[in-house]
Design a protein that fits this description.
The complex is a heterodimer of chains A (462) and B (342).
Chain A: H1 3-21, E1 26-33, H2 39-54, H3 61-66, E2 71-76, H4 89-97, E3 111-119, E4 132-140, H5 148-151, H6 156-167, H7 170-175, H8 177-185, H9 194-213, H10 223-226, H11 249-273, E5 279-284, H12 286-291, H13 294-311, H14 316-320, E6 327-332, H15 343-353, H16 355-363, E7 367-372, E8 379-386, E9 389-397, E10 404-408, H17 419-422, H18 450-458
Helix pairs in contact in A: 2-4, 8-9, 13-16
Chain B: E1 62-65, H1 79-83, H2 96-126, H3 128-171, H4 174-187, H5 203-239, H6 243-264, H7 271-291, H8 293-303, H9 306-310, H10 315-336
The chains are: A alpha/beta (462), B mainly alpha (342).
Bound molecules: guanosine-5'-triphosphate and magnesium ion (MG).
The site of magnesium ion has 5 residues of chain A, from helix 2.
């Protein structure tokens, strides 16, 4: 920890203490999830259901009970002079409620929103005192960017070595064939030609895209290659991993750009918004990973644990300063893709896939728990007849053409499955239409298990 | 739901899958889809062969489209009804004291009307002109009494608009809120800025508009009234002969202040209304007292004035009195707002 961030840590801790003293706590909630894990939908549902709960609706019964029914008011904190875009729950809700409904696009930029929850005090004399106000700070961002976090602790040589080693294995090797051939053809003392740098970058980026979109892999760095964000592609991005033997100008150029890239990501994204969380929820599309095959499944786990080592991991000093989340909830998202009886298995599976991530969190003293949630419940339980057998399935309306369908999601194992399991082949879960929603969001939206998750995560702070 | 940590890692049921019956056709194949829209599909085909891997190739995930594949309406879980706020039957019956009071009032009023009726009839029996005069007197007298009662009731009911408007806001009921706000605007004293036609604006916009155009200026005026009352209270405590007199003057001034602030909001409560108002103010005062730095700032501003310098000896008691007045004006404003302060 450098002196500057230590000083900032001490100041932040003092501020937290002062806020707690006057009943104006602030909870920074890290919603972490790889791309397409369901962060944006989770936040939309969280906000809609909290606002509705503030109006007295029982949208989050477990949270209300954890708070002893003392939630009085919930509102979105009015905007100040932030330079960051604001997360727009109304727009997302509106899009989900229209006919035909639209799910949020891939998130392309950072956005934030704060929600204030007024609760009556716990003590008997509480009625005499003003209500406590807990402010929940939320952030949304492209999931791909999360993988830039572990890069911060590496230099170009170490990152290149690790990345190139990974490219030799499994499905990546196939996708990276073009890029690896290009690397092989490069002389070790290649000059700092921008044409070469750009060519290498393009090949490397296309490889990343193939890995993400075709193979369902998630450990893909750097994040802005896949999702360049609002500023588009800048020369800053024109680099790629290079073998240790390369010593020419091109290697130096790539190393410089690597450093500049990290400095930029750190300054605009990671330092201002991705430090000092009080609570964390890790969203994992376990079922999607399971259906994408063995390699994608393990890749997701690796990516999560790499990210966790930065967000939830903390040394003793950081822990002392309260800079690491105290509670980390791991949640399998889209739990409505499996029938009720399979949801326990889903939560158990998330426990296994996040083994590395959970280790980091527990090491730094955080409490962890595992859940299966659906931010928006889009299906109901059903029974399907498969080859004369009845199996538990779900029924929903498909997004594409509004046709009803029964989906048998396969058996959900409670631990990482054995080799034979993967022989069943890959499967793409269809997208569903959300149920009928009120565009004004007066009564929130149907969910599964969101309240229990929140009760565990922030119930003690209310 | 939280999954306990101690699950045995070797439990076999995790991997058990339904047995596959060979030769069954795959019900959903979209490889032959007529259009090229992305469709859910079963991707790998390697183990689809009926007898390829009889054991491992258990039931694969699959999508079974409804018969006919006609568009279906979106699901409806009846969520709105399931989560609707429980409205407790308001058991706000009459308290015994109120019953006794109402009974006594009815007896007094009722018997005096009967009495008057008898008396008028008697007077008519004596002489027609005598009866006429008596009737006129009785009508005039009772008319005044009923007018007073009517005013009380109206003043009391007017305060209820506040509750109704706030409830409508809490429910998110834009129509009701607009209606209540219109009724409230109509009652405001002439010369007050009005938000005008609230049209079809969404709730957020209505709230922001009413707050900015009407409630904020009213709050400023209420604060000014509070400051004036504070100066007076301060002066009184500085010169008054006895603490008892202080208290009396304070109560009277406070009561006037609360009614003045209520008038700013368009309420002219009678006796019953004032009592109801005071009850609300008492509830809000606790909140305002502890939260409001503005109160302290205002007191500090006052006490550094000339007045304070002259009577520095009594500053302590005076400061308390002044503080209370400012507090009271804030609390009264809080109690009378049609929309709660954000
Ligand atoms: N059925 C169902 N589908 C969901 C749910 N949550 C997310 N999804 C699906 O998952 C997709 C991705 O969700 P997003 O919230 O946009 O994912 P994200 O994590 O924000 O993704 P990036 O912005 O790309 O990082 C959505 O388009 C939905 O189709 C859920 O609760 N139920
Ligand atoms: Mg998103």
């Amino acid at each position: 920890m450098d002196p500057l961030s230590l000083l900032r840590g001490i100041l932040d801790t003092t501020e937290d203490a002062a806020r707690a003293l006057v009943g104006r706590e602030r909870i920074r909630l890290a919603v972490t999830g790889l791309s397409r894990a369901g962060k944006t939908v989770f936040l939309t549902s969280l906000i809609a259901n909290l606002l509705a709960a503030g109006r007295g609706a029982r949208t989050l019964p477990a949270l209300s009970d954890a708070a002893g029914g003392r939630i009085r008011r919930v509102f979105i904190v009015p905007a100040g002079t932030e330079t960051v875009p604001r997360f727009d729950p109304d727009a997302h809700l509106g899009a989900l409620a229209t006919d035909p409904p639209r799910w949020p696009e891939r998130t392309e930029d950072f956005s934030t929103l704060s929600i204030a929850i007024d609760v009556e005090r716990r003590t008997s004399l509480g009625g005499m005192l003003p209500e406590r106000r807990i402010t929940l700070d939320l952030i949304d961002y492209p999931g791909e960017w999360l993988l830039d976090l572990p890069m911060l602790r590496q230099d170009f040589a170490a990152w290149s070595e690790e990345t190139l080693a990974r490219l030799q294995r499994g499905m990546r090797a196939g996708a990276a064939a073009g890029f690896l051939a290009f690397l092989d053809g490069l002389p070790d003392d290649a000059a700092a030609e921008d044409a070469l740098a750009k060519r290498g970058y393009t090949l490397y980026r296309d490889m990343l895209r193939t890995c993400r979109d075709v193979h369902g892999l998630r450990f893909l760095q750097p994040g802005r290659f896949l999702n360049p964000g609002p500023r588009g592609e800048a020369p800053l991005l024109w680099f790629f991993p290079m073998p240790a033997t390369a010593r020419g100008g091109l290697a130096q150029l790539c190393a410089r750009r690597f450093d500049a890239y990290l400095a930029d990501q750190r300054a605009t994204f990671l330092d201002p918004f991705f430090s000092r969380f009080h609570r964390q929820v890790v969203l994992v599309d376990v079922l999607g990973a399971l259906h994408a095959g063995e390699e994608a499944f393990h890749d997701t786990g690796d990516a999560l644990s790499a990210v966790a080592s930065i967000i939830s991991g903390a040394n003793w000093l950081e822990r002392l300063l309260g800079a690491a989340p105290m509670r980390v909830a791991f949640a399998a998202t889209k739990a409505d893709h499996v029938p009720t009886r399979a949801r326990d298995a889903l939560a158990a599976l998330v426990e296994h896939i996040t083994l590395g991530a959970r280790g980091r969190a527990e090491q730094s003293g955080a409490a962890v728990s595992f859940h299966a949630v659906a931010a928006i419940r889009c299906t109901e339980d059903a029974v399907a007849r498969l080859e004369g057998h009845s199996v538990a399935a779900v029924r929903g309306v498909l997004l594409q053409d509004g046709v009803g369908a029964t989906i048998y999601p396969g058996e959900v194992p409670m631990k990482p499955p054995e080799a034979a399991f993967w022989d069943a082949g890959l499967f793409t879960m269809p997208e569903f239409r959300p149920p009928r929603l009120d565009p004004a969001g007066v009564s929130g939206m149907p969910h599964l298990g969101l309240d229990a998750l929140l009760a565990w995560l922030i119930g003690d702070a209310l | 739901m939280t999954v306990p940590d101690n699950r045995g890692g070797d439990s076999p049921e995790g991997l058990k899958r339904p047995r596959r019956i060979d030769g069954a056709p795959d019900e959903h194949r979209s490889d032959d889809a007529p259009d090229d829209r992305p469709r859910p599909r079963v991707m790998a085909d390697a183990t689809d062969g009926a007898a390829a891997l009889p054991d491992a190739a258990a039931a694969r995930p699959r999508v079974i489209l409804d018969e006919g594949a006609k568009p279906t309406p979106r699901l409806d879980f009846g969520w709105d009804k399931a989560v609707a706020p429980v409205t407790l039957p308001v058991g706000r019956g009459w308290s015994s004291v109120a019953l006794v009071g109402a009974g006594a009032a009815l007896l007094v009023l009722g018997f005096s009307i009967l009495e008057a009726g008898n008396f008028i009839a008697e007077q008519f029996a004596r002489a027609a002109w005598l009866g006429g005069v008596t009737l006129a007197v009785a009508l005039g007298g009772f008319g005044l009494v009923f007018a007073a009662i009517w005013r009380e009731v109206r003043g009391y009911l007017a305060l209820r608009t506040v509750d109704r408007a706030r409830a409508a806001l809490a429910r998110g009921d834009a129509v009701e809120l607009r209606a209540k706000l219109d009724a409230w605007q109509a009652r405001l004293p002439a010369g007050r800025a009005r938000a005008g036609d609230l049209g079809a604006a969404p709730i957020d916009a209505i709230v922001a508009l009413v707050e900015a155009k009407m409630l904020a200026p009213i709050a400023q005026d209420a604060a000014a009234l509070g400051r004036a009352a504070a100066v007076q209270a301060f002066a009184v405590t500085a010169v008054s002969p006895s603490p008892a007199a202080d208290a009396l003057i304070f109560v009277w001034r406070g009561l006037r202040l609360v009614r003045q602030v209520a008038a700013l909001h368009g309420f002219r409560p009678g006796i019953a209304g004032t009592i109801a108002l005071l009850r609300r103010v008492a509830v809000d005062a606790a909140t305002v007292a502890a939260t409001d730095v503005a109160v302290d700032a205002a007191v500090r501003g006052l006490l550094s004035s000339k007045l304070a310098e002259h009577v520095a000896g009594e500053a302590a008691a005076g400061a308390v009195a002044a503080r209370r007045m400012i507090l009271l004006s804030r609390a009264a404003d809080e109690a009378c707002r049609v929309l709660p302060r954000r």
